[in-house]
Amino acid sequence: MLFSNSTCADFVTALGTKSPVPGGGGASALMGAVGVALGNMVASLTIGKKKYAAVETEMLALKETAERLQGELLDLIQRDAEVFEPLAAAYRLPKDSDAEKTHKAQVMEAALREACSVPLEIMQKCAEAIVLLETVAAKGNSLAVSDAGIGAAFCKAALIGASLNVSINTKAMSDRAYADRLNVMADTLCAEYEERAKWIVNEVKKRLRGN
Q1: How far is residue 176's CA from residue 74's CA, in Å, rounded to a whole number?
Q2: 46 in Cβ contact with 66 (< 8 Å)
Q3: With the C-alpha atoms ordered 201, 194, 127, 15, is the resulting torsion angle positive or negative?
Q4: Prior bond to 22 cis, omega within 30?
Q5: Which end of the chain is more exposed for a tag (fewer CB within 10 A), N or C?
């Protein structure tokens, strides 16, 4: 099943089964894609309006960035499923003899590294999306400002979700120094961009309530 091209109903149904894919990583990528698409919508609703002529060039550039991020995050839904397959196969390898144990450990380590690469990339794309949403929330069409806030909330959720996928894979790594480096990367992204997304949501809420 090509998850990035499936219907919403099919994806959610598959997500709710005992099958390991799609899982939290794919769901996080989808959430991020939806979040950035909302930013794209706000930019689209700003372009062509006389009231926002001063920011039209900026909105056109943001729209282009949003469309790129949407496509990349949708691709990562499928990529997340693909990198899980060799990891699942590695867990099933025998470990009866010393040679088998050594082989399994080597295969597992390589598979875990690859499995971490996708959620880290999802996090990086969501961080980029949050920066974009910050601008459209501040400068975009005020009639759609709530959508910018919703997009930020979605990207924040996707960021946190992907970070948990990093953590579950680094936990199983034998190379603790490498695992620690990946954890620091994930923690650094969360520390900055969770707060930025939260700030966007709060600012949007203030504007909507006239505070």
Answers
A1: 31
A2: no
A3: negative
A4: yes
A5: C
Closest of 165, 73, 72 to residue 112, by C-alpha: 165
Q: CB-based contacts of 131: which residues, under 8 Å, 6+ apart?
A: 196
Length of the chain: 211
Report whether 15 contacts 22 (CB < 8 A). Answer: yes
pLDDT per position as a tens digit, 186-206: 999 999 999 999 999 999 999
Given a contact cutoff of 8 angstroms between Cβ atoms, the answer to whether 111 and 169 are in contact is no
Residue 211 has pLDDT above 80, yes or no: no
pTM to 2 decimal places = 0.93
Whole-Å CA distances, 61 to 38, 65, 169, 200: 15, 6, 36, 20
Residue 99: count other Cβ atoms within 10 Å of its Cβ. 9
R_g of the chain computed on alpha carbons: 20
With a CB cutoff of 8 Å and minimum separation 6, the contacts of 129 are: 32, 35, 36, 39, 66, 69, 73, 151, 155
Give percent of the chain with pLDDT exceeding 90. Answer: 81
Task: Give the count of beta carbons closer than 10 Å to the beta carbon of residue 172.
Answer: 15
Using the CB atoms, write b or e for 27-57: b if 16+ within 10 Å.
Answer: bbbbbbbbbbbbbbbbbbbbbeeeebeebee
Domains of the chain, each with CATH number or no CATH: 22-79+119-209 (1.20.120.680)
